[in-house]
Amino acid sequence: MKINDKIKNDNQKILLASILIFIGVFCRIILHDFFNSINNPWAEFGVLDVFFVIAAVSIFSAILLGNYYTIAIPIIVLAISDGFYALVNPLNIAIYPTWLF
Questions:
Q1: Element (H, E) at 75
Q2: Alpha-carbon span 78 to 80, nearest angstrom
């Protein structure tokens, strides 16, 4: 394998990882308010109602990227979206605990 091919492959993986992170954060932020506006039987568990977003991002990162991306991408998505909630409204931490992170 040539060095140029390896660099190109790494750049493609980084781009795909960035896209997965963006999709995960965007969906988690958008769907968080959607599920809090309906009668949710899982509400006492905090943010578990949007856990399927993290699960989907984890599965896609494992299938498409493999290696350490499988662990890193979901943790980054959780950190960014929980940080967003903490910065937007610090009182949300008391209402919607981010113990999942």
A1: helix 69-88
A2: 6
